[in-house]
Design goal:
Number of strands: 24
Strand content: 25-35%
Helix content: 25-40%
Radius of gyration: 23 Å
CATH superfamily of the largest domain: NAD(P)-binding Rossmann-like Domain
Number of domains: 4
Number of helices: 15
Distance between the termini: 25 Å
CATH topology of the largest domain: Rossmann fold
Strand order of the largest sheet: 3-2-1-4-5-6
Oligomer: single chain
Structural class: alpha/beta
CATH architecture of the largest domain: 3-Layer(aba) Sandwich
CATH class of the largest domain: Alpha Beta
Length: 453
């Protein structure tokens, strides 16, 4: 597949890395010639210097031969115009990133054919959705939903005093009784392990569990985790993400005391006018004395989502030092992620990863229903439909010979999801929730292609 990406920012770079690693033909367009030369040295991609909104640049870059066109610059207008300019070419799929809420809600974008866009992505909106999900599963540091919300993938950190430290998966399974779950992965020292029964849990492990939504309480009880809704929440940063999170919380009537910290007075006036149940504080995010007066030391959760990684990290660490129980932090610079666990950051969210989740399904050849990539990991989870092929007809999972590096976490049949065992049978038309490492991605894609033997 030939993929053209306009914009060499964090999202564009991440997509180039991911797609080029998978063997896709990638073309990157950006105005920054120095950045393009650096990326061309590091990655197996082609680059063109210029504006993605220029018909001449697009033609020189080979838009006529492109299958997937992705415009992810920092300018909404450039992204929309770039997609519009590509309309006269037979590009199969066009994707544009749009940040402005005014544009997203504009009647002119309801009919996306005007701009020749198949998918409009808004990382800010997606980030807000992810944060609200994490608020409701307070023990988890990562979450994804599949099977229309019936199946959860939840990530938990195993503490040093956790009772399962040193136990094998076999031993844990013997304690589970009728509690159904699949431990899809263990992330240890940055390495993803697809676990087997003899693998042991170690302190500091990040474990990913595939569970049914209705079984979440039982699974958390088995593993010694307790999620509950926070009573007091501070949102640091009243920009688009902070505002969207607050509005979603109010619309969902989650019954919590919500305080928004924003240094810009004009923005505070906007927040006060457009939110009904949130307290808006015109305070600098790093003014800890003022925040202590507002009770941040007794807060259950701080959500730091300013445009500054440094402010987000420092404000969360200061709050936790003074007593805030938990923090969710937006981090744009991927190189910061490995050190944040050691600093005491509970949950980190990356805008570029959110964008990748929304785009990657357009690259896979299998019939992808949903997809999620895991933060600071080389692993992915997809929900795909089993093709109509004899090799998938009434086959027990233990005989499926799924590629190494992958594990099936759930089966969805006729709209109902369940956690499988080795004896569970799959059929064409079933949806499977599959967890796999990046090395196994191409094998999974090939394995589930509809080819008769």
């Amino acid at each position: 597949m030939r993929i053209m990406i306009v914009g060499a920012g964090q999202v564009g770079q991440y997509l180039c890395e991911k797609f080029s690693f998978e063997g896709q033909e990638v073309v990157l367009i950006d105005r920054n010639e120095e950045k393009l030369k650096s990326l061309e040295r590091e990655l197996n991609i082609q680059t063109f210097c210029g504006s993605g909104a220029s018909a001449k640049v697009l033609a020189e870059a080979g838009i006529a031969k492109t299958d997937l066109f992705i415009a992810v610059t920092d300018s909404d207008e450039v992204n929309l115009v770039a997609c519009f300019m590509s309309r006269k070419y037979k590009v199969k799929t066009r994707i544009a990133r749009v940040r402005s809420e005014d544009l997203l809600l504009s009647d002119s974008l309801v009919d996306k054919e005007i701009f020749g866009i198949d998918l409009i992505i808004s990382p800010n909106w997606a980030m807000a959705d992810e944060i609200v999900k994490l608020i409701q599963v307070s023990e988890a540091f990562d979450t994804a939903e599949f099977a229309e919300g019936q199946v959860y993938l939840l990530g938990y950190i195993v503490g040093e005093d956790h009772p399962f430290v040193g136990k094998t998966l076999y031993e844990i399974g013997s304690l589970a009784g009728d509690v159904k779950y699949v431990m899809a992965a263990i992330i240890r020292n940055g390495k993803t392990i697809i676990p087997r029964g003899e693998d042991r849990i170690e302190a500091g492990d990040k474990i990913y569990l595939v569970i049914l939504r209705d079984d979440m309480a039982k699974v958390e009880e088995l593993f010694g985790f307790t999620s509950k809704m926070p009573e007091m929440v501070f949102i640091v940063g009243g920009g688009d993400i902070g505002y969207l999170v607050a509005r979603k919380i109010e619309d969902m009537d989650l019954h919590m005391e919500l305080k928004i910290v924003e240094a810009d007075k004009a923005r505070c006036e906007f927040l006060s006018e457009n939110l009904s149940d949130s307290m808006v504080l015109n305070v600098d995010a790093l003014d800890i004395n003022s925040l202590l007066e507002e009770g941040i030391d007794t807060a259950d959760l701080i959500i730091s989502v300013t445009e500054s990684d440094t402010t987000n990290i420092l404000s969360s660490l200061m709050a936790k030092y003074h007593g805030t129980k938990r923090c969710i932090v937006k981090v744009g610079r991927h190189q910061f992620l490995p050190m944040l666990d050691k600093l005491g950051i509970d949950v980190t969210l990356s805008p570029r990863q959110v964008a990748a989740d929304m785009i990657i399904r357009y690259v896979r050849r299998a019939n992808i229903v949903a997809v999620a990539t895991l933060l600071d990991s080389d692993a992915e989870v997809i929900e795909l439909t089993v093709p109509d092929s004899k090799k998938f007809k009434d086959v027990p999972l233990k005989d499926l010979q799924i590629p190494k590096g992958a594990i099936i976490g759930a089966i969805v049949r006729e709209g109902k999801a369940y956690i499988p065992s080795g004896d569970s049978v799959i059929r064409p038309g079933d949806n499977l929730v599959i967890f796999f490492t990046q090395d196994a991605a191409k094998k999974i894609e090939n394995f589930f292609q509809a080819k008769e033997s």
